[in-house]
Amino acid sequence: MVDADQTFVIVGGGLAGAKAAETLRAEGFTGRVILICDERDHPYERPPLSKGYLLGKEERDSVFVHEPAWYAANDIELHLGQTVDAIDRTAKTVRFGEDGTVVRYDKLLLATGAEPRRLDIPGTDLAGVHHLRRLAHAERLKHVLTNLGRDNGHLVIAGAGWIGLEVAAAARSYGAEVTVVEHGPTPLHGALGPELGGLFAELHREHGVRFHFGRRLTEIVGQDGMVLAARTDDGEEHPAHDVLAAIGAAPRTALAEAAGLEIADRAQGGASWSTSGCAPPTPTSTRPATRPPSTTPSSIRTCGWSTGPTR
Fold it and tell me: 245: number of CA atoms within 13 Å, CB side?
């Protein structure tokens, strides 16, 4: 039986929010658990969006953290498609939804995650410019890649990080032509350095991906609202029917800032927290940091392909 005298509110329906709700019940919390999600889908994991699901190897239902019935069975009050627009730390309340529902909390966890960074160049309003962060994005992109592969179409990807490389691999598996524009000298240069970055570049080239290193997109060229090409800062124009912006993500801190919570800067990890009325310090972004391996693995597998055994 739920103890209505204690309420734990979780804002954010990603993996962190869903697992927080699961952990509260697993560790014996008997109060109300309210999970508020701004997406209409049940909480899901994001890695499959650029991997198995995008490749068509995993079913849609496989991305969800729990089956839909799990929430009611564990007395989790789930509010889908609802946005929290205000936190009153003095009254210990949150307001959400179009009708302005207000609930009081004893503990509050902000697990608001991140949003994809946007290209700040002309042409981003054209149909055919994409991001990949949400399930709806992946569903749309999966349809796009199918059509590009069928029609021998061209995809230009801005950014050679994990998302950019994984989508490049998926696009090639569908048969699309792929060009990746990256301002660094190799893929994943900041995360892995030049040697491993070069390995990933060679791996993708072997599968037909073209790279344009040391450059940035300056314009997406279109006609009648559709993408025709992507122009880089050296004046080169790359044929494109669709463009993916894969230039990273930024923590969603607006709600925390509006509530007056302390926001750590990037050098300190980009976390947000409050010393009163909220749960202990909790990162606003759930994507783990990436670092080079301490030892050379017997094989490296990522982005859809394997390098095979190393020697």
Answer: 22
Q: Which pLDDT belongs to residue 294? A: 37
Which contiguous run of DSSP H or E holds residue 177? strand 177-182
H-helix or E-strand spanning residue 220: strand 217-223
| Residue count of the chain | 311
> What are the CB-based long-range contacts (under 8 Å, 24+) for 59-63?
60/135, 60/139, 63/135
Give Cα 50 distance to the centre of its chain: 9
Same structural domain, 192 and 50: no
What pLDDT digit, counting tens, does each position of 252-299 carry?
999 999 999 988 776 655 544 432 333 333 333 333 333 333 333 333
For residues 32 and 8, the answer to whether their CB atoms sit within 8 Å is yes
State the distance between the two ends of the chain, measured CA to CA, in whole angstroms. 59
With beta carbons less than 8 A apart as the criterion, state whether 7 and 34 touch: yes
Question: 167 and 88 in one domain?
Answer: no
| CATH number, domain with residue 171 | 3.50.50.60
- Cβ atoms of 234 and 243 within 8 Å: the answer is no
Mean pLDDT rounded to a whole number for the chain: 88
Domain that holds residue 179: 118-247
What are the phi and psi torsion angles at 75 (to 5°)?
A: 55, 40
Q: Are 180 and 240 in the same domain?
A: yes
Q: How many domains does the chain have?
A: 2
With a CB cutoff of 8 Å and minimum separation 6, the contacts of 140 are: 130
- Alpha-carbon gap, residue 109 to 259, rounded angstroms: 13
The answer to whether residues 17 and 132 belong to one domain is no
Asked whether residue 273 is domain-assigned, the answer is yes
Sheet with 177-182, side-by-side order of all strands? 129-130, 242-245, 154-158, 177-182, 210-213
- CB-CB contact of 303 with 178 (8 Å): no
